Amino acid sequence: MDSLTAMEASNARVATELPPGLVGVFIGATSGIGENCLKAFAKHATKPRAYFVGRSQEAGDRILSELKELNPEGSYIFRKADVSLIKVVDEICINIKSKEKAINILCLSQGVLQMYAKTAEDLHLSVALTHYSRMRFIVNLLPLIQNATSLRRVISVFTAGKEGPLYTDDIQAWKIPMRALTGHAASLTTAAFEALGKKAPDVSFIHAFPGAVDTNFGRKGQGAIAYAIRQVFKAMMLFMEVIPHEECGERFAFIMTSAKYPAKLPVDGTSGLALAKGEEVAKGTDGKAGSGVYSIDQNGESYGAKTEEMMAKLRKEGAVEKVWADLETEWKRITGLEAV
């Protein structure tokens, strides 16, 4: 297990051992874990350039000011947007692609705890944000990530390690029992990442569980279910080791930059900071070290046998292909295009 001290020691090498001008894109970054990830990137990188997207202009303006104080040599661009809409995702990606030739890090944490609401594009709102929107950002920006000569990394902050049965006949989870939702949602991300790993073996895909971080999860306006879960979560946190925001950022800075998570077919110079003595490359979701697709815990460690066995079962059932086919079907229905 990587201790926080070891992670911080690795992060301290980012400024001197990784090239200046790293480009990061952070979606869902105006609060909570996404904000922590963004700030950690700005803190450690030399002359970074960061695009970040969120729903609150007020929060975006605040974070812009704080980023400039944190690292005045960086460049920071905020976009207020509702990324539950695939057409909006496409607009953002087209704009970024007009300005950048390469992206090093794509970090996705958008989400909402609002069950059974529908977007204007006829997608389940919560699944639109955690699945359809996140994967759309990835496929749209993947060519730029593959152009990077340093880090090439995609991180989805969600329910890694909780992979369970995947309901391929109800991917949007309209009728799935509440007790099965977490397993289904976790498997959607990991299965989609396995599909992406085949398409882009020169990129690292990391599904990460953040641990107990106090965020605005289930915030006001997300409905009665969200409020109830928020109260339960608050009560549980009284008995859990809560990860402070800055520490959360340090943990994700390590995940963003360490060679612990290489691509399956890494290009020279793109695997990240060399591991310290005694550290080992993480196992992928197929159980093989360094295989490019990872499901990791808050300590940066692979979940191991339970996840590997579940993903092997889903692969055998053809779930990876079914999940990807559904994504392309919905994207085409909404936009007419597989990607922009």
Automatic annotation (TrEMBL):
The UniProt record lists the keyword Electron transport:
no
Q: Name one GO molecular function term.
A: oxidoreductase activity
Keyword field contains Oxidoreductase? yes
Entries under InterPro entries matching the protein: NAD(P)-bd_dom_sf, SDR_fam, Sec_Metab_Biosynth_Oxidored
Q: Which UniProt keywords apply?
A: Oxidoreductase
| UniProt-recorded name of the protein | NAD(P)-binding protein
Q: Which organism is it from?
A: Hyaloscypha variabilis (strain UAMH 11265 / GT02V1 / F) (Meliniomyces variabilis)
